[in-house]
Amino acid sequence: MRIEKVARKIWKFTDWPGLSSNVYLVDIDVPTMIDLGSKDFSGSLTRALGRIGYSPADIKKVIFTHLHFDHIGDPTLFKNAEFFASQQEIDDMSNNRIGAFFALFGTNPSALLKGIDLKPIQNSGKFTIIETPGHTRGSICIWLKEKKIMFSGDTLFSNNILGRTDLPNSAPNQYADSLKKVARFKYKILCPGH
Ligand SMILES: [Zn+2]
Predict the structure, then answer these.
(1) I want to staple 64 with a disulfide (CB 3.0 to 4.6 A). Which of 83, 85, 99, 172 is the partner?
(2) What is the CATH number of the domain that holds 16?
(3) Tens digits of per-residue pLDDT, 48-75?
């Protein structure tokens, strides 16, 4: 797994883009992960964390930008963490709007999150949560003002490469507004999901 230092105390982990999302560790308030990649790569994520002196047990918060299986990883490894996603995303998962489609890949998000107490995210500590429906109805972007970093999940991959909005729980009609909302933040670094 490739480890890249994005800024002081912020790292990006990349493994098999396309099969597994980027994973970020932000150790600013408390050690916080943004997305966990695909479960198949959770062993290599654990080893990569070890290489920079962390173990999954050190992580206190995990924030999911949305609940597609390639972002959920293996949350059971993070025994001391609280888990967060948007209320909309949690509702859609409970109603199986996400699961029915992704079960086709043998990776139903509700199965991956079984036994995990997922809480609705609000602005927390130094993170500002931006609701950006489009890729999924409950997708969020996460703004870290003091570093001018935008964690954009699958909403925005670079300034001209956009996420898919043709999935069962996408919100294509709201996508343009979400992109405008993100653009108003004058980010210096974009940390996308892929
Ligand atoms: Zn996605």
Answers:
(1) 85
(2) 3.60.15.10
(3) 999 999 999 999 999 999 999 999 999 9
The pTM of this model reads: 0.95
- What Rg value do the Cα atoms of the chain yield, rounded? 15
Query: Which residue has 């002081």 as its token pair?
Result: 8
For ion ligand 1, residues whose CB falls within 5 Å: 68, 154
Q: In this structure, which amino acid lies at residue 114?
A: K
- In the reported structure, the alpha carbon of residue 33 is separated from the centroid of ligand 1 by a whole-number distance in angstroms of 17
Distance in angstroms (rounded) separating the CA atoms of residues 94 and 13: 29
Q: How far is the CA of 136 from the centre of ligand 1 (A)?
A: 7
| DSSP-derived secondary structure letter, 17 | B
Per DSSP, 59 falls in state -
| d(C-alpha 163, C-alpha 158), whole Å | 10
Closest CA to 190 of 167, 166, 162, 165: 162
Site of tokens 């909309």: 88
For residues 178 and 141, give the distance between their C-alpha atoms in angstroms, rounded to a whole number.
Answer: 10
**What residue has token string 């809480």?**
119
CA of 79 to the centre of ligand 1 (A): 24
Q: Structural domain tally of the chain?
A: 1
